[in-house]
Design brief:
It is built from 4 helices and 11 strands, in the order βββαβββαββαβββα. Helix 2 packs antiparallel against helix 4 and helix 3 crosses helix 4. A hairpin with a 5-residue loop joins strand 4 and strand 5. The chain has about 240 residues and is α+β, with helices and mostly antiparallel strands. The longest helix is centred in the C-terminal third of the chain and has 23 residues.
Amino acid sequence: MRPSQSSDGTVFGTLRIGDGTRSNRTPSSSVAPVMVGSLSTLPLPVPAPRRPSGPERWIRNWYENELGWATVPGWPVRLVVGRRFDVLDVPAEAGRAALRHLRPGSPVAAQDGRMRLLVAAGSAQELPGLLRWLEWDGVGLDLVALGEGTLMDAPPPGAGAAAARPPARDRSVSQGAAVWVRPPGPGCEVEASLPTLSALGGTGGSPDLARVVDTVAAQCHRLRLRRVCGRRPDRS
């Protein structure tokens, strides 16, 4: 650049680029230019979903991969009811009375003094009509049916899953109070072992849901009468 001066004292320069010439008529007395750039806001990093570890991963993997049962995120691990099975939630004493009507492979869980009998999916909707047919409708029974849209605490896998257990340091972490009385067998086929209405009068291998419900209802009624008699005042 070669500076030159005009008649009024302003200094100009000529900038040569290659073979071309371009005049720079910016007064030398002006303030040096300041480059202003646009500030782009970078997106904040989104944390990756929490990966289950330890006993949670072991339990969840066993149910989802070995049995094909759906679970929901979180601890304790919970099973989605209504897809592969429904549940009859009854007092433990009533549940024990119904075990004789179940196949050895019919899963049964226990928690907080109650038993959870796994039955065929859709049984929860059939229960009110079945109780009417068995003439138990209108009787206050401590019998709860869990169907679609409900959850069940997942007990730790049974002895059949010993090879898949986590390291010994993780075994001290329990899955609440839920335990398997009769754990589900290996593989993804559980439907054949569940009590169902379709077994009524049939010769198939599935347990009869009507017999299971009738036995449970009768035992629940006995328990209710026992509680009522126990609260009666002594008239002697």
